[in-house]
Amino acid sequence: MSKNIKKIGVMTSGGDAPGMNAAIRSVVRTCAYYNIECVGIYRGFEGIMEGDFRPMDARSVKGIVNKGGTVLKSARSKEFRTPEGRKIAHDQLKNAQVDALVVIGGDGTFNGGLVFNKEFDFPVIGIPCTIDNDIFGTTHTIGFDTALNTVVDCIDKIRDTASSHNRLFFVEVMGRDVGHIALNAGVGAGAEEILIPEENLGLDRLLESLHRSKRSGKSSSIVVVAEGDKIGKNVFELKDYVEANMDEYDVRVSVLGHMQRGGSPSCFDRVLASRMGVKAVETLLEGKTNYMVGLLNEKIELTHLREAIKGQSKIDRELLRVSEIMTT
Ligand code: F6P
């Protein structure tokens, strides 16, 4: 066990995700278990630069495992992207005698941590936490599973009204530049078509598919659209286009938006966050730095932060095939 690490700082950064609190709790309690001091850093890299640190003991994280959002707050910092900002951050950490950081977030957060390590040789470990699931080196990011359940729940409700009125609904879901949420929730909710950035369906094929589904006797339809889809039209333009080309459909749009980021984390996300927090602290105590903890083949494994940032998380193409068969 590394004797150099006596105090660990934990922070959340970037878009929040359900399970962030469970990850904070796990880091704090693992520190307590190993008799290491822990400080919570508020508002991510902004909070480091402002020295907004508060000591956290095992009891300080009681009652948060089931809470959405992040008790440490989150922010995206412009100043930390400058060498001057990072120097201020380093001075604050040194003054507070913080020896290492656990950063909870997505690739922007990891990038910040990596640059910081390079400049100051400061130990950093990352925990992947974003609803988008767009991180290489883990099959699941914390928050993804909860977001999927939220989306499926919403689509089930939309289907009720869609089938009552014989309507076609375009449901836009989050995911920034990737289609993990759209693809998985689309299959789970039985969507007729799923539009994702990784697979350009094209407008003609979309119309063809909708005609086919009408002909097969379906009176209503759900099309899930990833926000980053590249079909060339936003979801409202898509509605206009389909209405102009298919008068048999009455079309509506539902943009699910930030509700996908909220809510109580699923059991899967809570367990994942607990496992990742333990591994993050233990990795620092083994004297390692610049790794991300991730779920690979059911085990918590390490991936270098550089790989996690550079590598591309790939969608499960088999799911596309499954979706096609399911909509027969
Ligand atoms: O990265 C998480 C995410 O929710 C994306 O799915 C979405 O594109 C983005 O954040 C929204 O960011 P903001 O909360 O800044 O609008």
Automatic annotation (TrEMBL):
Keywords: Allosteric enzyme, ATP-binding, Cytoplasm, Glycolysis, Kinase, Magnesium, Metal-binding, Nucleotide-binding, Transferase. SUPFAM superfamilies: Phosphofructokinase (SSF53784). Pathway: Carbohydrate degradation; glycolysis; D-glyceraldehyde 3-phosphate and glycerone phosphate from D-glucose: step 3/4. The active site is at D132 (proton acceptor). Its main location: cytoplasm. InterPro entries: ATP_PFK (IPR022953), ATP_PFK_prok-type (IPR012003), PFKA_ATP_prok (IPR012828), Phosphofructokinase_CS (IPR015912), Phosphofructokinase_dom (IPR000023), PKF_sf (IPR035966). It is found in: Cytoplasm. Its cofactor is Mg(2+). ADP binds at R25, S26, V27, V28, R29, R159, G190, A191, E192, K218, S219, S220. Belongs to the phosphofructokinase type A (PFKA) family. ATP-dependent PFK group I subfamily. Prokaryotic clade 'B1' sub-subfamily. This is ATP-dependent 6-phosphofructokinase. It comes from Gelidibacter maritimus. The gene is pfkA.
